[in-house]
Amino acid sequence: MSLRGAGTDRPYIDSALVRDLVDSQFPQWSGLPLTLVDPAGSDHVIHRLGDELTVRLPRHPGAIGQARKEQYWLPRLAPRLPLAVPVPVAVGEPALGYPWPWAVTRWLDGEVATVERLGDSTEAAGELAAFLRALWGVEPGEGETGRAETLAERDGSTREAIAAVAGVFDASAMTELWDAALAGPGHAGPPVWFHGDFHTGNLLTVDGRLSAVIDFGNLGLGDPSVDLMVAFTLLSPDARAVFRAALGVDEAAWLRGRGWALTTGLSAYTAYAATSPRVAEQTTRQIRAALAG
After folding, report:
1. CATH code of 61's domain
2. Radius of gyration (Cα) for the chain, nearest Å?
3. Which of 41, 60, 58, 62 is nearest to 101 (CA)?
4. Beta partners for 56?
5. DSSP 225
6. What would the pLDDT profile of 115-126 be if each residue is shown by its tens digit?
């Protein structure tokens, strides 16, 4: 028996391990070719399985609940949403030294959305707003969703990040925005569904148009302003204005959305910018857009 990665916070995952897991737990797919998807996200190692399936193994403990969460909730949400979402097929069990549940889902064709292709698109802005209106409007239902994180819980780490990048970005402007986001009115209505990680990396396009939303690991119920971060990760100022108008969010929610864009941008920048020029460019744009409003 392989013990690859056993007992570690970040188990070693290679294609041979994924092949063994699939073949031992789902022999009906043992004859399908397995191809690493690279680059994948920071949370999962992803392989394409044949033409119609994908296999996703969490890289770290923070992602281990996603397989079962998506298996339960996405079939319930998908019929209400105007863009495609991943369709769970099966959840694999820990085995062969791999310590966590893992997922097999339907493959979604498409390319990751980019600022170059969609940033100025008012049509994409309207489609993003329509998706969020639909998601926010779904009744909560019964089942475990996980606890929603708040801006206040990120206060310490955000202020540390502001200090760490003070030589790159305007620390006074970041602190002013962060203080305002924390001090402003919170979400006044009942908790609603939010995606929780709604940015360019989790949007797919086909023929230059939005086609799918992926990665629902942060799906939960609470303040939906977290999903406004997409306005600052993807959209230009003009498209951002169309997005905001289509959603009809008030000034307090928009301010909290800017706060979410700032804190998540800082978190990614401090973690990855030194080693990834792509992340550095994306998060720099995000932080500056959040400051601009």
Report:
1. 3.30.200.20
2. 19
3. 58
4. 46, 103
5. G
6. 999 999 999 999
